Amino acid sequence: MSEESFGQALRRHRRAAGLSQAQLAQELHLDQGNLSRYENDRQRPEPATVDALDALLCAGGELRALANAATPQPATRGIPTAGAVQPCDETDAMELARRVAASDISSETLAQLEMTFDDLATAYPASSPHNLLPRLREHLGYISQLIDAPRKTLAAHRHLLVLGGWFSLLAATVHIDLNQHAPATARLRTAAGLATHAEQDEIRAWCYETEAWRTLTGGDYRRAAELSQHAQSIAPSGSSAEIQATAQEGRAWARLGEGNATYRTVERVHSLSAHLPKPVPAEHHYRYDPGKAAAYTATTLAWLGDPEGEQHARAVIDRFRPTNDFQPWPRRYATAHVDLALCTARNGRLDEAADAAQTAIASGQVAPSSWWRVREVVNHVTTGKLPTAGELQDSYRTMISR
């Protein structure tokens, strides 16, 4: 049996994943014509494209190995005697330098993409996931085109891999917010693959942290703690990724009812974030700000059942209360009301719990991935047979039907 080519292996893995050429091309923002040529071995994809295909199709490195094996070796003009000076030595060196410096991608383009990512990461806490996703898809498609550009410097190529990793990570987060788990998985794999190729441990750590959050919302709390710990182990020391992964671990311990582990982790989050400068812009999703620790503590203690969770939730509400029709942190404000609702419900103050939950729902800032948190409060209020339980149930049903 003859050895399988890269194109044949790509076609086999695509079909095993249940994807058509059009679907795979759309998922990775590739031109379908290019994908067809890849599968027919008429065109060789860029290394970053191979990495993305291998990650998305769960090929376990097979596609990468076949692509590397198919890379033609450079012609040798005849190997000169050791030490002999050849007439072409100088011109070959100059030609190599020219080719390395040649690029169709300007530094201005890369800088603009960086600024766009910062804008989107800053908009994330206050924007509808439905509005962010089309913009992320558009820019991921553009980055994919640039990666396939025939002329670019090695530095520009690596820069594009890093940018592709960040954009894919944020897109995965938005998919999770929308409970779109299949594309979220694909985006996370792509982000992790690009980060590995670019040797970007911070992005890799954020990938594990993001998966930890998704796992936690799915109810597998111990696995969420393990993923959070792994994220911490690869995150750069003192980075936002390390702090956020530590916070995620604390949430997991709280859901498991492990009080001592929860308190130790909360203390570590505050210790790590205490001396952080306020990031610019302050709302950037991937730059931890000290104020985030307060909101995190409210949620974690509320989940643990610590009465102090109520005090922290009220402090967050006061801090982020809208003023003059301006709301800088609408999602934190809504989440703090959910925390307050859970605390008061557990203390038997069901009227207050229902009011706080209604405020959170009315804000329109509870992401689909957090609907389960509101449902917890609804269940408490319903079990307590509060007269207004029916109204809260109606509000909850309206929210999840949007």
Automatic annotation (TrEMBL):
Q: Which residues form a coiled coil?
A: none
Organism phylogeny: Bacteria, Bacillati, Actinomycetota, Actinomycetes, Pseudonocardiales
| Organism this protein belongs to | Saccharopolyspora terrae
Residue ranges annotated for the HTH cro/C1-type domain, each copy included: 10-63
Quote the Pfam families the UniProt record gives. Answer: HTH_31
This one is known as XRE family transcriptional regulator
Q: Which GO terms describe its molecular function?
A: DNA binding
